[in-house]
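Hey, can you fold this one?
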Amino acid sequence: MAADPVVSSVLEIREKLLQTLRSTLRPGQREIADWQGGRLAVSAVPGAGKSTGMAVAAAVAIAQYQLHSRRQLVVVTFTRSAAANIKAKIREYLKKLSLPQGGFVVHTLHGLAWSIARSAPERSGFNPDSILITPTQGNRLIRTSVEQWLGLNPHLYQRLLEGQQFDGEETERLRRQAVLRTEVLPALAETVIREAKSSGLLPEDLRSQIASDDYSILSIAAGLYEQYQLQLQSRSFIDYDEMVLGALRVLEHPGIRARWQSQVFAVFEDEAQDSSPLQTRLLELLAIDPEQLHNQNLVRVGDPNQAINSTFTPADPVFFREFCQTCAIENRLAEMNQAGRSSRIILEAANFVLNWVNRTYGNEDAAPFRSQMIHPVSNNDPQADANPSPEGLGFEIHTPEDVHQTVEWIGKRAIALFNHYPERSAAVLVRTNEQGKFVARELARWFDDKLSVFEVGMRDRQSHIPAEMLSLLQFLDRPHSPDNLKAALSVFVSRRIIPNQDLNALITFPEQFLYPAPLDPPQDPQVQQASRFCTSLLRARLELPLYQLISFLAYTLNYEQTELATADKLAERVMQQTRENSLTAMLEVLSDVVSSERFEPVEAEDDDRYVRPSQLTVITMHKAKGLDWDYVFIPFLHENMIPGSLYIPPAMQFLGDFTLSEVARAQIRAIVHHEPIPTNDEAWERAGSLKTAEEFRLLYVAMTRAKRLLWMSAAKQAPFSWNKPENLDDRKPCPAIPALKQQFPLSVIGESDEDDVEF
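Sure. Predicted structure:
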């Protein structure tokens, strides 16, 4: 039977489009697009375009394997903003291929785990009343767990209280009691719960590693962890790690596991360096081909050199490095080592820092960075203005007299640059929010309205969305309440859904406004518009299931992409905490969210607010990851900040020359890596090495945000504490600064050269 010529023509056109898409990719990106199954590790340098590569590869896989709703590609990302970003890109490429917008799903790791866990509650261990714990509830639970542990272990508590050199003085005893109850033990509990659970370790697993000494830090940690688990169970609470554990319990059942695996064609993971061992185990299980159990269809993309969360989350770049090494042996490692974001001099500076840190701080067991250099792209690269021409020298190192002069120089330089190139962007990257406040305040003092400054740290981080949703749902619950009606109408006016008008006149007779009778006075066109909008929402309330209401209302209010992602986050949160399927229950949860916490919005990785033309954005290095600017200023690079050192608050020094939480963290990681448990002193030393490595990776991330100019400085005088920025004294520069000065002598701007730099 002859092939249908129309079908053949469509397939030929699609194949040409696929080849055209592939031709736009760089080495490393192409390896993902050419993936034919099995495991693949992709190690990507900053600015390499990994999300674009993943999106193209996803579209290619959907087209080639004709994926659909019952056989899907599962894309997993670290944050909701990244999920929204890559979902939009995949849909864009599918549209170019004239394919339906399906065949794939995009999840955060916890969102995926929750979907699996709730598919079989009898297996996950969650009862129908289980709800997701809020941050506020989590803090209370930890404090309750501490009190429970203290009551069960009075002798251990007494030994902790005595610590070192206790003379029995009553005032000192009371002080130590307060420190232990409110600071030391809650911090230890929080660290061990997060580290152990996300590594798949239970309290009994920690206890099995402990010698006979019940006074060991791990013994105390295991006890606190056990009390926390009991508190969770007694209150029918679950936390985020419990979601992953619940999903794994569901997948232990062979039939359920086979069903999920049959629906998952493959798993593509982004930001793989930020995954915990437990999360990785879940993805590996889902990626198993049910017809070839030895085969995993798993593509993991990440950059261990941009791992900047491991000192306050369980993520450890070691795990992704190990995955890359294993795949390299199997000839399944791709390296995306070309980047078009930055000028060549900036790439050279970042590469130098990477090599210098590894030589200076690395050892035979581990190095802070994976040895992977950033290379400029080829001359025929499709990216517009790839590896752009530098601004001036492109890389500059300054030594102001003090931090005040630092900000003055930054402001003058930014104004001059924007005068020449108003379409370009700039940012000041700081290590802490306190530094950001200082920069914004000084810029305002020096330049007032001459410079547009956007300080990210001062922006209100409380999302408006929970309050808006609460107002609308209260209206849907009781539409004839004048207060509820006015609150809803106020939202519509603020979102420009209806014209601004006298709302008090509309709510005087709510029923007449919503459902005017034939004999009622005729409504003005503006009033009619508002009335029809309200009644359309009331009809939707009757037609839609409750779990879709928040998402529907978000679309109705014309939310933009990041607001829609925040609304989805809120809807998921509300449904997870709702004990019964009713609007009243939803309103209770929403009211609690609005009144008792700062619900953080989802931010898009390419958020335009951070990179507006002629705007100087003041932002922390952590927050800057995923963004870039034409000009990047990195001030205050002093040794006490980067790499800094672990700090023992004077109030806790009676326990020894370490903090219990950091020792516990290092000891738990040793267990996870199947290493001998270090002593307290050894664990404290390891914790210091982890911090040093991460601080230099943070500096590397900051440097690679710059496209045309990288401006770095270490003032001669700076405050020890940025809570008191007026107290200046001599400060040593970050150790990388002298090394950079020696390597790039032409980039060193001396005091006599400052006047020659165009301000």
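The chain has a mean pLDDT of 89. Let me know if you want another pass with a different chain boundary.
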